[in-house]
User: What shape does this take?
Amino acid sequence: MANDLVTTAISLPEDTRRSQSRERVTRHRRRIDAGEFCVTLQLPAAETEDLLVELGLLCPELADDRAAVRDALERFVRGAIIDGASSV
Assistant: This one.
């Protein structure tokens, strides 16, 4: 997989690589300006999807859609932070 990324990066035109890099930096700066940060989590897929469906944050039909799971998980975490902060 890492080799695929290296091969892809090498085969992309220089302008495309610069453009992708610029876009990543722009997204990073927007997050910082908004007071947000990005984290990567490793979670058990089935259990996470089941919980999000059970909580009504994810439609069962979208359990295989990574973007839908990510969005549902973000709503869950934001809700936990906001609810947790208000109960302290």
